[in-house]
User: What shape does this take?
Amino acid sequence: MKKIASLINPPQLIVLGFGVLILFGALLLTLPISTTDGQGLPFVDALFTATSATCVIGLVVVDTGTTFTVFGQLVILSLIQIGGLGFMTVATLFAILLGRKISLRQRLLIQESMNQISLEGMVRLVRKVILFTLVFEGIGAILLTLRWSFDTDWEHAIYLGIFHSISSFNNAGFDIMGDFKSMTDYVSDPVVNIVIMILVIAGGLGFIVIAELMEFNRKHRLSLHTKIVVSTSAILILLGALVIFAIEFNNPKTMGPLDWMGKVLSAFFQSVVSRTEGMNSLPIGDMHQSSLFFIILLMFIGASPGSTGGGIKTTTFVTLLGAVWAMIKGQGDVVFFRQRIGESKVYKALTIVVAAMMLVITVTMILSITEKADFLTVLFETTSAFGTVGLSMGLTPNLTIFGKLLLSFVMFAGRVGPLTIAFALSWDRKKKHYRNPEGKIIIG
Assistant: This one.
């Protein structure tokens, strides 16, 4: 086994690891003990659910709160936690607890899975990731439990608090409120809205960024990566809230009946979750088409590198915008905060965006043929799957078997990353030591 493992490169092992985890979770969900009807899920539905949970998305073909038993829900919750942290992080945690030495190959795998630049401090980073996760999820669970203790008994309130805290921090979007309601019953509740938003934002910033922010009082400096992530995330959240607030303000099916507090909370909540997490406080299917299209853009951008969220990532989006601006200004370099972005990073950002667009467009075209739904609904569902968001306009539960399998692949690609899959499938990635003659073409 060690000899076989040595022949597999890190991208291949990451793809294989996620695949095995999904398959194992799917098999557990097919067991009679997993569902309330005692029959277990059909394998395709179980595979879709396991993929959605492991890839921390939240798209569901059956209602999580009413279909699954506590055992089934705990299986989903375990997949969410492992998928959110990354299976290499969890494996490293067990190795640390058992007192085993972390090999260079394991450190390379951690670096690849967390999308880090340097190999230095990987084990220390894992420890921080686990600590931050326990702290955020623990505090979130306590606050949500206290709030829901007013609505139900303590035992159920604790269970609700733990489940939704883990789901929110890992940007999974799964909920057990029942009947596909998500958080619509708490659209004007400040505690539920604010706690979940903080958990989602924390999980979506990335562990490196959280670590730097925690140490800011001591070091009094932030890296370029953290500056870009924090500023971009803040702008997207504020812009998203303003756009949704303005468009949905008088919509009688969404914000119309709410008071000012409810309108503001729902606008910010929907803006936050639209980039990374699939819970919703407004009925998505009743929103205006302009709002839905804007949410599609937010879902495509997604969270930040090294986080529990998906999408092309905020840094990729900003780097591409910077390249466009540099070209317009006639500048040779992409510059942020007086620091230059390397040419290789710009090429990588362009590759990720083009690959993501090709995937979303191709799958949308195919599903438009195989599924009975309008184009915007299909595009929304596909982008939600790729961005590991989990918001739905109601198409997912009605997908054909082919549609479920295709969207499962999109969810997998969105979580692992199109480039990681491409690298895993590539047998020859050796860098050329020569350059071809320059040719001339007309652009634009």
